């Protein structure tokens, strides 16, 4: 299911992103036991090679991180993930999927990007020219099975540390020893 969101944020007046973090999906993480013992998806095989095999074998040299834009890195991971997928009868490991998993790429549909861009431009135009009331402040757009949009006013949290403008009290203890020298170098 694909959902896209559009926000209008007026600092101090409307809810900020921090107020509504619970509306955003959490990052997908696979349990290590699934990756190691019972992979079911091509993504599981790719993650296993990335997390378990690569640190043991150092295929790119010691201390070299995976570069999602380096064709050699992606090709090696893809080849090893394909071997693992074959062991478990899993199909679908390819270069494009491997790069997508390594770089956490979310596929984008050009028409959806165009719709969201048009909605953003319309809201900016309304805000600048005052020709019409701006939207409530949050729009959800889904085009996975037809077209569905829903606009609502995201609520501002009273205790939001970013936009509430309420002072946050913290207790900090500082210990100072007047007899200790704080110089680090002698000249």
Which fold name corresponds to the CATH topology of the domain at 32-103?
Arc Repressor Mutant, subunit A
Measured distance between first and last alpha carbons: 66 Å
Read across the widest sheet, the strand sequence of neighbours is 1-2-3
Beta-strand percentage range: 5-15%
The number of helical runs is 5
CATH architecture term of the domain at 32-103? Orthogonal Bundle
* CATH-defined superfamily of the domain at 32-103: Ubiquitin activating enzymes (Uba3). Chain: B, domain 2
Percent helix: 25-40%
Backbone CA Rg: 25 Å
Mean pLDDT: 84
Structural category: mainly alpha
- DSSP strand tally: 3
| Biggest sheet features | 3 strands, antiparallel
Poorly predicted ranges: none
Classified by CATH, the class of the domain at 32-103 is Mainly Alpha
Active site: 33
EC number: 6.2.1.64
Keywords: ATP-binding, Ligase, Nucleotide-binding, Ubl conjugation pathway
GO biological process, one term: protein neddylation
Q: Your description of this structure?
A:
With 187 residues, the protein is mostly helical. It has a domain at 32-103: Arc Repressor Mutant, subunit A (Orthogonal Bundle). Helix content is 36%, strand content 8%. It has helices spanning 32-37, 42-57, 71-87, 95-102, 110-129; strands spanning 3-7, 138-142, 148-152. Strands 1-2-3 form a three-stranded antiparallel beta sheet, with helices on one face. α2 crosses α3, α2 packs across α4 and α3 (71-87) crosses α4 (95-102). The protein is flat, with a radius of gyration of 25 Å. The mean pLDDT is 84.
